[in-house]
Amino acid sequence: MPNTIPETENQTPMVQNDRATTPIEIEEDKHWWFSGRTRSLLNMLDRVVEPDGQKRVLDIGCGAGNMFHHLARYGSVVGVDNNPRPLLVARERGYDVREGRAEDLPVEDGAFDLVALLDTVEHCDDEMAVFEECYRVCAPGGHLVVTVPAFMWLWSHNDVLNDHKRRYTSAELGEKLARVGFQIRRTTYNNFLVFPLAAGLILMRREASREPDLASPHFDDESYQVEMEPAPPLINTILSGVTWTESQLLRWVNLPIGTSIIGIAQKPA
Questions:
Q1: Does residue 149 fall inside a structural domain?
Q2: What tens-digit pLDDT sequence spans the chain (269 residues)?
Q3: What is the crossing angle of helices 127-137 and 170-179, to 10°?
Q4: Mapped to the 3 state alphabet, what secondary structure does 64-122 carry?
Q5: Could you tell me if residue 250 is inside a domain?
Q6: Helices 233-249 and 32-45, interaxial angle, to 10°?
C-alpha cells in the first residue's frame, strides 16, 4: 500500500510552521486504524472548517507530532503534551511544541481557531477540566475536534497499555462538551464497518486471556508512544479500503455504533 494517506480534497501534505516547511512521513500513516481515523476526521472537519492554511491550530496531547502534517492543512500548528519523551521527537521534526498538562494548558485565552483533542482526554483524571481548558483557549467562533474510544464494555488490554481512565458514548461526549459551553456540530461513531470484527476480537481475547505484547511508555522507559498492533500487509490493505469507504460516508451521515467517536463542536461567537 502507499506510504502516505491518499490525499483528500485540498489536503496539505506538508507541515507549515514558523521554523520550517517540512515534508513528513510517519510509520503510523501506513496503519489502517490511524489512516482511517485521520481520513474520517478530516472529511468531517472540512465541512465546517475551511482548510485554508491560515488558522491558528492547537494539538493537545500531540505526542511526537504524528498529526501535525495533517492539521497543517488548516494553519500553523502548536502542540502541547505532558510527556517530554515524545516532545523530543517532535522537536527533531521541527515542530513547535510545549510541555504542559491538558488540564492546565500553557497558552493564552482564545488563542486558537481550531483545537484538536485527539485520543487524549480519556487519559486524564479530570476530564471536565480538560474540556474547560479547550473552551478557554478556543477563539470565539472557533472549533474543537475530539476523538475518544467508545463503550466501556469494549475495555481491553489496549486501554491498559494506554493508561486510559474511561471510554465514552456519543451522547455522553456531546453532553459534556455542551456542559462547558460548546455548541455541538456533530458527534458520530467511527470504525462502524469493522465493529463486528473488532468487538469480537476484543471479547475473544478477553475470554482467552491472550493479549498482544506491545510496547508502552507507561510500562517501558524506552518507549515514547504506545506501539500499534501490526497487521499483515494484505489485511492492512483490506482494512484500509474499508475505513476509506467509511470516511466517505462520514462526510454526510453519522454512524450508529463503532469502536471510537469523533466529535466537532464550536465556541459561540
A1: yes
A2: 333 333 333 333 334 444 333 445 678 899 999 999 999 999 999 999 999 999 999 999 999 999 999 999 999 999 999 999 999 999 999 999 999 999 999 999 999 999 999 999 999 999 999 999 999 999 999 999 999 999 999 999 889 988 999 999 999 999 999 999 999 999 999 999 999 999 999 899 888 777 766 655 666 766 656 667 788 999 999 999 999 999 999 999 999 999 999 999 999 99
A3: 60
A4: CCCCHHHHCCCEEEEEEECCHHHHHHHHHCCCEEEECECCECCCCCCCEEEEEEECCHH
A5: yes
A6: 10
Q: How many angstroms separate the CA atoms of 14 and 94, rounded?
A: 12
Specify if 7 maps to a domain: no
Predicted model pTM: 0.88
DSSP alpha helix (H) spans, the chain: 32-45, 68-71, 84-92, 127-137, 157-161, 170-179, 195-208, 233-249
How many domains does the chain divide into? 1
Which domain does 166 fall in, by range?
Answer: 14-264
**Which letter does DSSP use for residue 48 in this model?**
T
Residue 9 counted as domain residue:
no
* Beta strand pairing call for 260-266 and 183-190: antiparallel
Report which residue type is found at 229.
Answer: E
In total, the chain counts a number of residues equal to 269
CATH number, position 145: 3.40.50.150
Relative to beta strand 75-81, strand 96-99 is: parallel
